[in-house]
From TrEMBL:
Organism: Clostridium aciditolerans
Pfam family, one: Cation_efflux
UniProt feature coiled coil, ranges: none
Main location: membrane
Domain Cation efflux protein transmembrane: 10-201
Protein name stated in the entry: Cation transporter
Start and end residues of each Cation efflux protein cytoplasmic domain: 207-284
Chain ranges passing through the membrane: 12-32, 38-55, 76-94, 106-126, 173-191
Amino acid sequence: MNEKTKVARLSILSNSSLIIMKLFVGVFTGSVSIVSEAIHSTMDLVAAIIAYFSVKISNKPADEDHPYGHGKVENISGVIEALLIFVASVWIIVEAIKKLLHPEAVESIGIGFIVMFISAAINYFVSNKLYKVAKQEDSIALEADALHLKADVYTSLGVGVGLLLIWITKLHFLDPVVAIIVAIFILKEAFDLLKTAFNPLLDVKLSDSEISIIESTISKFKSVYCDFHDLRTRKSGNIKYIDLHLVFPENMSIKAAHDICDKIEDELETSLRNTEVLIHLESCTHQCLVCEHKENNHIKQKSQE
């Protein structure tokens, strides 16, 4: 079992435990903010299960029906997780408004306070682990799952502080107010996640910083090629796809031009992990002194190697 699958399974186990604990304490104390946290953790569990299966599927190699691999399964997973968060947030807000209109006292505040901070501590540990592996593997599914748990850390702390304020002030209406604030925070999380996960499904280009790395890498070889154009980039799962047209002097041999392309591809794959590069060779239609100079540069470089 690879690292991505292991950490996704850890998220499932931790969320399952927290749901049981939060739901029991929420019902026992009558706190809608704790119940809202249990609902949030339920969404986290669903998200963790989706992430678990998506990383397993995305790791499958390319096949006849999926020549570009299965990477976009992770993006679909991220979109589903974001939509789940939207649903959970709306549900929390509706229940909190009901509690504002028909207020009830929160019992056993101390227990609820302790549970919220235990939950925050557990999710802090698991989310950090998920983020670490997500960055190493460039996994949007694990990053989405980590984002869920990171939000749960803040919301659990928020509910815990809300319960502490209720205990100090005896103002029980603060419980549903905190729940609404939690829900609004989660909605913001959902929007950010949806944008991150959905863009690759539309084949949006790589980030400006990555494009800059690509262009600077290609430019290192400008002494031996004439021009490059039609640079296109996209991302599928954790794989970055780059294709471009590279123009060479008319009299340069195909082998010489191909060797230069291999060097560019190697440098790009070193600079940007999980990259597949496709270069289309073109011949310069204007035989001129510039082309001749570049061809001579290439011959000189080969002789020095």
